[in-house]
Design brief:
Length: 323
């Protein structure tokens, strides 16, 4: 991607192995200030490893990583960074307010604790020990902590896993506000609709290799298919629909509701109207990121839709810190 300013995050020719597993294989990526980038990939693709290199928690075996032009292992570089790892170990006996105050104490100009807790809907829990919070509340606190130091870049690894709809939307709002204020965001998520809703650029990693790196618009255009949704009692089984309706290359059916995939939705709608078919509830929709993703990593696309499992680690990594 082109960037007129020096990139905020620069990954150049990076390889990282864990014993005989090549988690990242010659990955290069530049992220400019103010970008909101979604990183997608099946389980074990290398996403978390990439974030751990950018945050300086791990070192690459070869290649270079720069955060705001510096080695991310330096304290000065890390001060520009906010991080929400996939799992956050909160000290169970500390109160929410105390945890935020503790993290805030590491920064010169932190967001006031009350303001941050208010923004994340946690103000009423300020006096509660973190051990007494629900999973979703802990997740909200983990993301709030990434913003306490007014970072110029945040790395969010599966930020909304386990959140209910309200919690997820509140986090989306916080991420958008941060981004609107000029912040740079790298986000991984197994919820493709989340990446589609938030990210402007998508990087697809699979088996440690960058398979695609483009704007959301271009990624979606790669699919080249439109979805026509309708209800009908006149259509045959889904796999027989392409023979019945010219231009349909694939169909799925649930009861009398059909989703028809076609490169030319206009022609299909004309065909439906002139065919005399009895139908209602017609909708025409663009491709989704999920469809684009399925095409890019077709051999293992079902993995992406599984909730993230705890990866089977074959070795302990002394550099992994508080991961
Ligand atoms: N500390 C470690 N020791 C051994 N192998 C590791 C370690 N960390 C990661 N790996 C392996 O490196 C590969 C990439 O893992 P990584 O956690 O980066 O994937 P991911 O894309 O974040 O996956 P997920 O979506 O499941 O979180 C996997 O094969 C994983 O098992």
């Amino acid at each position: 991607m082109t960037a007129s300013l020096a990139p905020v995050v620069s990954v150049a020719g990076v390889t990282r192995r864990f014993n005989d597993v090549v988690a990242l294989d010659d990955v290069s990526l530049d992220i400019a200030a103010g970008e909101l980038v979604g990183i997608l990939g099946p389980n074990g693709a290398g996403k978390s490893t990439l974030l751990s290199l950018v945050s300086g928690q791990r070192k690459p075996d070869s290649g270079t990583v720069r955060l705001c032009g510096q080695d991310p292992r330096l304290t000065a570089a890390r001060a520009t960074l906010g991080l929400t790892p996939q799992e956050t170990g909160l000290p169970a006996t500390l109160k929410v307010r105390e945890v935020v105050d503790f993290v805030a104490g590491h920064y010169a100009d932190p967001v006031p604790t009350g303001e941050l807790l208010e923004q994340f809907g946690l103000a009423e829990l300020a006096g509660r020990q973190t051990g007494g919070m629900s999973g979703g509340q802990k997740r909200r606190l983990a993301v709030a902590l990434s913003l306490v130091g007014r970072p110029s870049v945040i790395l969010l690894d599966e930020p909304t896993t386990g959140l209910d709809v309200g919690g997820r939307q509140a986090l989306w709002l916080a991420i958008r506000e941060y981004h609107a204020g000029g912040g740079t965001v790298l986000l991984t998520s197994h919820y493709l609709e989340e990446v589609q809703a938030l990210a402007h650029r998508v990087v697809v990693i699979d088996e440690g290799v960058v398979r695609a790196d483009d704007t959301m618009t271009n990624i979606l255009e790669r699919v080249g298919l439109r979805r026509v949704v309708l209800h009908s009692a006149d259509l045959p089984a889904a796999d027989a629909v392409p023979a019945r309706l010219p231009g349909v290359i694939r169909a799925s059916r649930e009861g009398d509701r059909y989703e028809l995939f076609t490169p030319d939705a206009d022609a299909l709608v004309r065909e439906l109207v002139t065919s005399g078919l009895d139908f209602h509830g017609l909708e025409v929709r663009g491709a989704t990121l999920e469809e684009a993703f399925e095409q890019m990593v077709a051999h293992r696309s079902s993995d992406l839709l599984r909730p993230p499992a705890t990866p089977a680690r074959t070795a302990t990594d002394p550099e992994a810190g508080a991961r």
